Amino acid sequence: MDRTRLYRDGVLVKENFPIDDISECVGDPGAVVWFDLCEPAGGDLAKISEELGLHELAVEDALHDRQRPKVDAYDGHLFITVYAAGLVDGEIDFVELSLFVTRNALVTVRSSADFDIDAVLRRWDADPEMARYGVAYLLHGLLDHIVDGYFEVLQPLDDRVEALEDELFDGGVTDLRGRHRETFTLRKNLLRFRRMALPVREVVGGLIRRGAEVIDPALMPYYQDVYDHTLRASEWTDSLRELVGNIREAYQNQQGFKLNEIMKKVTSWAAIIAVPTLITGFYGQNVPYPGSGEPIGFWSSTILIIVGGVLLYRAFKKRDWL
Fold first, then answer.
1. Cα–Cα 20 to 30 A to 174, which of 59, 129, 149, 188?
2. Three-state secondary structure call for residue 322
3. Which ranges form a coiled coil (predicted)?
4. Which of 1, 31, 7 is nearest to 19 (CA)?
5. What is the pLDDT of residue 293?
């Protein structure tokens, strides 16, 4: 369902009214209007585009998904593309949001209903006094909610990376192949997250650089706070990617160490087995040799096998090869 709100002089006076009433709403200089469209078709944006004078290229971008995060300036309005993130069954799920920002209207276009727009409304309603700043306040609340969602994604990933580190150094890893697969998936998710979330820093930075053209000076510290959060999210993402890479490399090294241990044991036992093989092979010659056909030959070969095997076993055990 499309959502709408009308603020007049900083006070919420109407909501969930038909989009067809847009003309009388945007025509009031003291009114601020918010329109929300979820998975719209081409005709859904037509009336809003006509009333607000939205550029056709911006409307086209809003109707086609997989746009890069950006802020574009057109005559009379801004067009912003950002991505909200959520963690679903260990995978990062993104919802694309296209925003049209005019002097007295904010239009949000969601690519999926998975984005919780009601949480944004609760954030707006939590401080109704700030609504007097109009569109700039509504835009800040939306961006702040999106960026806060990044931390809700990063925290579980950080916890999982720490668990992998602890497991690695505690020596409790048994399924190395499974851990390789998990670290690869983590790294891939973080790479996707970085590609979608990191440019939001430039989006917020672009709004700040425009200054009073877009943002009321009283709201500038709030936008700066959102910008700082985007920096923190990007730095956290980079550090997690580096940690996952180090853990993956450590798992590979650990696998190599285990292979070396196995090879040392196999080689040690092969060397021990070679002693009786050598001696019995020598005494099994079809030519006369010292002790041939006499008990001394049997006992001397048996003693050599036992002594040689024990000496090699002790030598390998001392070097921790067995």
1. 188
2. coil
3. none
4. 1
5. 67
